[in-house]
Specification:
10 strands, alpha/beta, 225 residues, 29% helix, 6-stranded mixed beta sheet, two-stranded antiparallel sheet, 6 helices, Spore Coat Polysaccharide Biosynthesis Protein SpsA, Chain A, single chain
């Protein structure tokens, strides 16, 4: 079976209660649940949470919350892979899981057609993982640092005179979803590894949401889409 796992802790610090905070008319997590439901990719959509309010909102919008995430997987430092592996292990007590897709709870730009494309890419490339990524809007090879004295230097000074069109294009994680084979999640294999492939997204459909400023920008982009 294919399952969707939406990790949603209750302890958000920079944007309090961001997983259930209203975003463009719905609780934030409802957008991720809706995309998963509309994709038709999943036999079950599970929200992994330690929080009763998040659980109730998730159930109201069509997801299952069959367990409470253990405290040791709910702190500020727990990475994504063990959380998804825990959900897969729970599900496999009753039914085998072949593929699992992690969709972040704060990923309102996730589209059903992208989820379907990610699943196809995972299988076509026989990859461990397939995830969304987009390009940086400025060449990373030309990035600068500023030290405590205010002095500027380049991270890669060898590219001071290199034309931007001659520099390799760089991508970053779009922070939306991560398809993976159950055995890859359970083995703890890294998402950003050589057996992973990316689904390229346009920059206007990507916004990380970690701060109030991020939230405002995301709402503006989402409303304009």
């Amino acid at each position: 079976m294919n399952i969707c796992v939406i990790p949603a802790r209750g302890g958000s610090k920079r944007v309090p209660r961001k997983n259930v905070k209203t975003f463009c008319g719905k609780p934030m997590i409802a957008w991720s649940i809706g995309a998963a439901l509309q994709s038709g990719c999943f036999d079950r959509i599970i929200v992994s949470t330690d929080d009763d309010e998040i659980a109730n909102v998730a159930i109201a919008h069509g997801a299952d919350v069959p367990f409470r995430r253990p405290a040791e997987l709910s702190d500020d430092f727990t990475p994504t892979v063990p959380v998804i592996a825990h959900a897969i292990g729970w599900q496999q007590q009753t039914a085998p899981v072949e593929r699992a897709c992690c969709i972040y709870a704060t990923a309102p730009f996730t589209r059903p057609e992208d989820l379907r494309a990610g699943l196809s890419l995972l299988d076509e490339m026989a990859a461990d993982y397939a995830f969304t990524a987009t390009t940086y809007d400025f060449p990373i090879q030309r990035a600068i640092r500023v030290d405590e004295a205010g002095t500027v230097s380049m991270f890669q000074p060898e590219h001071l005179m290199t034309r931007s069109q001659d520099l390799a294009e760089a991508f970053h994680d779009a922070g939306q979803f991560y398809w993976g084979r159950a055995d890859a999640w359970l083995a703890g294999r890294p998402i950003f590894g050589f057996r992973s492939v990316i689904l390229k997204l346009p920059r206007q459909r990507v916004q990380d949401i970690d701060t109030p400023e991020d939230w405002e920008r995301a709402e503006t982009l989402f409303s304009a889409a």
